[in-house]
Amino acid sequence: MRDRLIFGAQLAFTIVVAAFLIVPAALSMLAGVTLNYFRGIQSGLTLQWVIQVWQLYSDTIFRSLLIALATLAVTLVVGIPAAYALHLRNDRLSRAVEEVITLPLAIPGLALALALLLTYGGFSDFRRSWLFILAGHAIFTLPFMVRSVMAVFGAIDVKTLDEGAASLGAWPWRRFRDVIVPNATPGILAGSLMVVTLSLGEFNLTWMLHTPLTKTLPVGLADSYASMRLEIASAYTLVFFVMIIPLLVAMQIFARYRGNPTVLPR
Amino acid sequence: MSLEASGNLNGHGAALRLENCAKTFADGTHALETVTLDVARGETVVLLGPSGCGKTTLLRIIAGLETPDAGGRVLFNKTDVTRVPIERRNVGMVFQSYALFPNMDVAENIGYGLKIRGVNGTERNARVAELVALTGIEGLERRRIDQLSGGQRQRVALARAVAVRPSVLLLDEPLTALDAALRERLRGELDRLLRTLGITTVYVTHDQSEAMALGDRIVVMRKGGIAQIGTPRDIYFAPASRFVAEFVGAANIVEAVHDNGSLLLPGGKFTVAGAHGASLKDRVLVMIRPESIKIVPTEGAELLGHVETVSFVGDRQKVAISGIAAKLIVVDAPNSVALKIGDRIGLTVDPSAVRLLPGDLP
Questions:
Q1: Which uninterrupted H or E stretch holds B304?
Q2: What pLDDT digit, counting tens, does each position of B343-356 carry?
Q3: Which pTM value belongs to this model?
Q4: ipTM (interface pTM)
Q5: How far is B208 from chain A (nearest CA, A)?
Q6: What is the CA angle B172-B173-B177, rounded to 5?
C-alpha cells in the first residue's frame, strides 16, 4: 500500500514536471494552426499560417539545411582525423589542442561572432556569403564531433587496432579508411546528429553573423516574433519542431549504440 | 587439412639481429638497456620476465612500433630495417588484446594483410581457407569478432598474423587473456603450430612454464636488461644468477660454506659435484630445486630437519623443512609418503643438481 502511494506520488510529480515543459511547446505549436489565437481554438484550425511561413521564410529553412549539412561536412573532414591524431598522440600538446578546440563551448557565441567579424569582416565577399555563418557554426560544433569520436576511440582501443593494421602492411590512410573510421561509426553518427541539430538551432552566433540575405531559420524565427503576428511566429516554431524532432529521435537511437560499437547494424 | 599438407608454409622467415638496441622514452624512462640479440632463421625465442622488464619494448622495436635509441640497429637477414616502418617490415604480430577488427568478419580479418598486398580474391580465399584449417576454426569464417570465444579470437589473431607469410612472427603475451585450462591447451597447439610453420618467432611472456614449453631459447629479462640467454634446460638447471633461479621455477637458495667438495649447512653437510671456482672455506650461495631433494630415514642422512608444513597438491606434496638452513627448505615429496608437522626427517641432495650462484652474499 505504502509502495503504491510512493509510486503514485512519484508518477504525479513526473507528470507535472513534464507538463510544465511540454504544455508551452504544445500551446505554441497549436497557436500556429489556430485561426485567431486571441479567440482561442474555437476560432477554428487552419494551415494558412504555415503556408504563409513557407512563402515568407522558406529560403531560411533551405539555407539552414544547407549550412547544417555543410557544417557536418566540415566537422567530418576536420573532426575525425583530428580526433584520430589527438587520441594516438595523447601527450601534453594534444591535450592542449583538445582544450583549444573545446574552448568555443565556453565562450559566448556573441564573443565568437565578434572575433570573426573583427578578423574577417573586411573580406566583404566572404562576409556577405553564407560561408561566413558556416565558419562560425564549424568552430562552434567541432568540439562535439571531436569529443564524440574520441569517446569511441577510447572505448575500442583504437591505438592497438591501428598497430594491428599497420603490422599487416596498411599505410596510415588505408588504416584510417579500413579500420579506424568503420569502427568509429557510432561516435561519428552521434557526433553528426549533434552537429546537425546544433547548427539548425544555433542563434547567438548566427544572429551576429547574418546579413538580411543570409538569414537562417532561428534568425528568421526571431524576425517573425518581432515583426509578424503571433500565429505566424507560432507556425514557424511548428515548422522548426517538425524538422528538429526526427533528428533528436535519431540521436537517441544512435546514442544507445555508443560505447558498444559492435552491436551497430551494418 | 592435415599438417603435412601445409608443408608449403614451411621454411620462411628471416634471421633476426638486434644490435646495441636501447630505448629511452620521451619522459626519460629507460625501458631498455643496451641489448644485442641474435635469433636464427626458424628459431623460437621467448622473452621472459616480470612486468616492466622491457620485454614488450624489445618486441616493439623488432616490430617497428618503436625505434631504438641512436646507435641501435635491427637487422632482418643482415638488412638494416631500423628505419623501416612496421607496415613495410613484413612482420606478423599477435597482440595481447588480439587487435582483431570488429568491423570485419573472421575471414576478412585473416585476409586483410593479403588484401593490402594486392593478392587477388581467389588466391586470398585459398590462403584464408588454408589458415582456417590449420588453426582449427572451420565454420567460423563468417562470424563477427564479438561472436567468438577468447580461444577462437586467439586462433584468428594467429591466423591473421601468419597469413602474410611474415619474415618474423611476434607474439605479445598471446595467452594471457585466457583462463588457465584453455591457456594450457592452446599452449600445446601453439607449440605444434610454430614447429609446423618454422617461422622465426619472438614470443613475449611473463609465464615461465609457457616460456619452457615454447622456446628453443629463452631470454630472461630484468630491469631493461638481459639476465640470461639459454635453452630452457640451461635456464632451469644452470641459472646465471639468483634472479633467474628464483624467477624460473621454484628454488631453494641458501647460504652455505664450501669445504673441499662438501657444503656445510646448519642441518648437516652434503657433497657437491663441480663446485668450480669456489676455493676452500668460501661462503657461497647455493640453489637446489625442490625436486632434487629426497626425504630419507634419519639414520645416516646427510641433512636433518623438522617438517614445518605439508601442502598436498595432488601429484606431489610440498614440504617445508626447518633446521637445515637459515630459512625453510622446500622439498617436493612423492604423494605416497605420510608426513606430519613436527616429524624429524632426513634429506639427501642429488649432488649434480646443486648449483653455486655467483654474486654477493646478502
A1: strand B303-312
A2: 898 998 888 888 88
A3: 0.79
A4: 0.82
A5: 26
A6: 130
